[in-house]
Design goal:
single chain; 303 residues; alpha/beta; 18% strand; globular
Length: 303
Amino acid sequence: MPEKERSIKDFKQLISLLKEKHICKRVVVVWPEESHTQEAVLLAAHEGFIKPILICSEITQNTFAQKEGFETIIVDSPEEASRKAVALIREKQADIIMKGFVNTDVLLRAILDKELGILPKGAVLTHIAVAKLAEYNKLIFFTDAAVIPYPTDEQRKAQVQYLVDFCHAFNITCPKISLIHCSEKVDTKHFPHTANYLTLKEDAKAGVFGKCEIDGPLDLKTSCSKEAMEIKQINSPINGEADALIFPNIESGNLFYKTITLFCHAEVAGVLQGTMAPVVLPSRGDTITSKLYSLALASLIVK
């Protein structure tokens, strides 16, 4: 099978695919006033898959941007930088937004502005992450670790669609999506959201999401371990080989994110979906490498 048709199993393959396809996206970087953001942007630019537009202070222009030859727009504050970045997306002068040294709420205020923002009416804003763990033989996608506290049925349906689309972009032709719970039983009394899992499975069988396999409720271990699934004698199309996980709430998704990065040293990337353009929204604790991979992820999924 030609390389470009194989599923992407790690972030190095992702960057290789971007270079192979000559993908280069315009990334507007909001207030890149610290070294980690600057280093990630520099690495991505050197790899050739982004063209940065830095919305920054005059100091950053003089000490960083000019030396690297990056386009800059000088502003006086993170708030002004956020509004300008959103405007560039609306004007189709950029393809991706990346958060720099700016508070998340400041950037989101500009993104969610009802008149001047970039979240279309009716769209679901959510966070999608992808991780590479040493003990798992492929990438694992999951949502939501950062935005939606308790997804409604419609929000969870949108999350499923985003994950299927992400997996297809990574050449996973029939992604296996696991609907995560603490057990394999629907419990509408204590966990009402599990009833919606049945609806999502019916939608998948009807082809609503495109080509995919969806099952749940399943716990995390049976979702990602054939041995665990066999021991529990569970018959599921996921077969212990999940490509993506839908977490029931932000607490479980965030805990998974923090656990795999702290204790498993997982490589992780993430973006916001639902907006007119992908938004790379790294946390302050994310590494330079994670920010680089998030830029690569966003570059692949730009429509």
